[in-house]
Amino acid sequence: MSDHRPSNRPGSRYHIAVLLMSLVLAIAPAAGAADDREQRDLVDQSRMTLTNFLADSNMSWFREHIKDAKGLFIVPQFLKAALFYGGAGGSGVFVARDEKTGVWSEPAFFTMGAASFGFQFGAQVSEVVLLVLTQRGVDSLLLGNFKLGADGSVAVGPVGAGVSGATTPNLSADLLSFVRAKGLFAGISLEGAALISRDEWSRDYYGKAVTPTDIVIRREVTNPHSQSLREAIVQATDGK
């Protein structure tokens, strides 16, 4: 009798992960060279996601400690679906604080994707914010191809109405993940997720070819449209 169980060989998992990332990039509407509407929408949605987190009664620890972050990675819509094998993905923005001036950078555009294995069924749309706590975490993201748990440690941030500043998560981690979600999944793990820079989106948004380092560290480009996002971050981190 032939065995029809799904293969667990590493090669099979690799191909699923590749297909997942291709799907994430395919479902995101393509922006033309002179059309940055999708990027502008993502920046606006990122600001709304940050506002949602700050207003959520379950995110008291997040509100109290966002000031300690060296960077933020925001994904307004992280889509997850599964039928035995699962996949998740979404577009996001990365911003970082200048260590000397304290000024927050313009956003660099990324895609986050992950594949999961084992029995599962359901669908979920989540909002995701990663607090980047260490310089190693910032530097790894600037490479433009970053894997959570491999290129930088990630821990789940404390969530709950009763959580306060006295609750101490793994602060030795490079990043803390916070997720707001409704769906059939009870939770979501970001371990193993890949963060890949979308340089073509950054090019369309800023009008020239730039890397995450050009945007976040060298500060070579600006776009007035991002001001509302950066002001929201300043208000959340500095109380201004």
Gist?
The chain has 7 helices and 8 strands; from the N terminus they run αααββββαββββααα. The chain has 240 residues and is α+β, with helices and mostly antiparallel strands. The N and C termini lie far apart (69 Å).
- Estimate the mean pLDDT confidence: 80
- Low-confidence sequence ranges: 2-19, 26-33
Bin the helical content.
Answer: 25-40%
Strand order of the largest sheet: 5-8-3-2-1-4-7-6
**Count of the domains:** 1
Rg, nearest Å: 18 Å
Helix count from the secondary structure assignment: 7
Q: N-to-C SSE series?
A: HHHEEEEHEEEEHHH
Indicate the structural class: alpha+beta
The 3D shape can be described as globular
Outline the structure in words:
The chain is an alpha+beta fold and 240 residues long. The chain has one domain (10-238). Helices cover 32% and strands 27% of the residues. It contains 7 helices and 8 strands, in the order H-H-H-E-E-E-E-H-E-E-E-E-H-H-H. It has helices spanning 10-27, 37-55, 60-65, 135-142, 199-206, 212-216, 227-238, and strands spanning 71-83, 85-96, 108-116, 121-132, 145-147, 154-156, 175-183, 194-197. Strands 5-8-3-2-1-4-7-6 form an 8-stranded mixed β-sheet. Residues 2-19 and 26-33 have low confidence and may be disordered.
Topology:
Blueprint: H1 10-27, H2 37-55, H3 60-65, E1 71-83, E2 85-96, E3 108-116, E4 121-132, H4 135-142, E5 145-147, E6 154-156, E7 175-183, E8 194-197, H5 199-206, H6 212-216, H7 227-238
Parallel strand pairs: 6-7
Antiparallel strand pairs: 1-2, 1-4, 2-3, 3-8, 4-7, 5-8
Helix pairs in contact: 2-7
